[in-house]
Task: inverse folding
């Protein structure tokens, strides 16, 4: 096996280069090297490449939604062996700090991430032929799942964590999802599988609205065609039980705030940039709603996502709109910058 590999390396914002780099090896206790078969292209990857998010240390190999095959294991690895087909959780954790002990492994005091953001310790990601990770970040890929489907476990797990675990969606809830790109569609599909009543997708993109209807939305709203709040309340006069912001712009967060009625639960899910919005304190008090937010994933959420896909409750491949080999990474970046895509997959 060659000691080098092809990787997409970000040297500065807007400077992503395909190049041969040294292939990782499993040296330390718990290390595993995975040959990447598929990796989802997340909006946070795109934001790093384009400089929209600035918490990036160069050089950097993006890509944090991978699936693949174990090709090398380090000392102490007992649960996986060479040849195993696996799904990789990007957020690594120690398992022993106070947060890990209470199940909040995404808060880990010694966290690392492969190809993502959040922790200070960022490892090279999966826009490459091989990736180094740790044994406790791996899940066995069910035989019935393709690698393309399996690599979407992480974003689906985030959708499950936000909609079900944190915002506690109930059967029959009327749900509004603001922004139905890749992650918004997954939030919507989780809500559909969990028994949402009226399920409203809000998006300015005709393509996104069309996809939302095809994947389970009962109604769609175009904010450019009049007051979005009024449009939603014409569909659900009593107002939404749950609003999920999965868009990113601060205007989407403000729309979520404006959609509240008494008892509405709302989840700040999509915005990752440090922007401000205002709340009327008294109104928020008397509405007695509940705000949640959700980032990252956990082993519990990953396990639930695998079950959703394996059982057929979520037809995950329907969310995939584009596939590119790693050699065409720049075409994939261009597609991510356009308006007509859902989940984009890189196949090293």
Result:
């Amino acid at each position: 096996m060659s000691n080098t590999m092809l990787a997409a390396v970000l040297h500065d914002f807007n400077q992503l280069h395909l190049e041969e780099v040294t292939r990782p090896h499993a040296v330390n206790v718990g290390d595993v090297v995975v040959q990447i078969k598929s990796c989802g292209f997340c909006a946070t990857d795109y934001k790093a490449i384009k400089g929209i998010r600035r918490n990036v240390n160069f050089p950097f190999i993006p890509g944090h939604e991978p699936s693949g095959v174990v090709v090398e294991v380090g000392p102490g690895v007992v649960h996986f062996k060479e040849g195993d087909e696996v799904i990789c959780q990007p957020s690594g954790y120690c398992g022993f700090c106070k947060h890990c002990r209470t199940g909040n492994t995404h808060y880990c005091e010694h966290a690392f991430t492969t190809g993502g953001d959040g922790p200070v310790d960022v490892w090279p990601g999966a826009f490459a032929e091989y990736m180094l990770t740790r044994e406790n970040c791996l899940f066995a890929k069910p035989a019935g799942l393709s690698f393309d489907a399996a690599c979407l476990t992480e974003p689906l797990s985030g959708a499950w964590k936000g909609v079900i675990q944190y915002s506690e969606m109930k059967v029959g809830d009327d749900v509004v999802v603001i922004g139905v790109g890749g992650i918004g569609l997954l939030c919507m599909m989780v809500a559909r599988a969990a028994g949402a009543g009226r399920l409203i997708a809000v998006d300015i993109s005709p393509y996104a609205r069309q996809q939302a209807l095809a994947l389970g939305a009962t109604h769609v709203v175009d904010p450019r065609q009049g007051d979005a709040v009024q449009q939603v309340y014409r569909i659900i006069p009593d107002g939404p039980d749950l609003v999920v912001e999965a868009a990113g712009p601060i205007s989407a967060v403000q729309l979520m705030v404006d959609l509240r009625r008494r008892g509405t639960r709302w989840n700040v899910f999509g915005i990752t940039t440090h922007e401000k919005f205002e709340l009327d304190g008294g109104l928020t008090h008397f509405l007695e709603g509940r705000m949640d937010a959700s980032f990252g994933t956990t082993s519990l959420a990953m396990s639930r996502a695998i079950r959703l896909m394996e059982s057929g409750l979520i037809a995950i491949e329907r969310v995939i709109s584009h596939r590119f080999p790693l050699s065409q990474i720049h075409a994939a970046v261009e597609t991510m910058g356009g308006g007509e895509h859902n989940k984009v997959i890189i196949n090293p």
In short: Residues 7 and 231 are 46 Å apart (CA to CA).
